Amino acid sequence: MPIVTIQITREGSTAGASAATAEEKAALIKGVSELLRDVLNKPLTSTFVVIDEVETENWGRGGLPVDQFRQQQAPE
User: How far is it, in rounded angstroms, from Cα 28 to Cα 60?
Assistant: First the structure.
């Protein structure tokens, strides 16, 4: 029984969106489930996928909150 947790920052993939859409989440669930079926022969009905959305203030990279890290990496 595979259990997959996907962690993403809570922000949209398009302008004005504040989170992943229901359609995007459904595509992630389908894609991960099908990958486990195709690679490890795990039945779709036994695969659990959890999507955990994390506020960007609670996500860090390179020793910084992710928003600050992104600002540092942005071209000037």
Answer: 23
**74 burial via Cβ count (<10 Å: 0-12, 13-18, 19+):** exposed
Q: Where are the domains of the chain?
A: 3-73
- Cβ–Cβ under 8 Å, residues 10 and 66: no
pLDDT in tens, 32-74: 999 999 999 999 999 999 999 999 999 999 999 999 999 999 8
CB 28 within 8 A of CB 6: yes
Q: What is the pTM of this model?
A: 0.84
Active site residues: 2
Token pair of 43 as six digits = 């039945």
Decide yes or no: CATH 3.40.50.720 for domain 3-73.
no
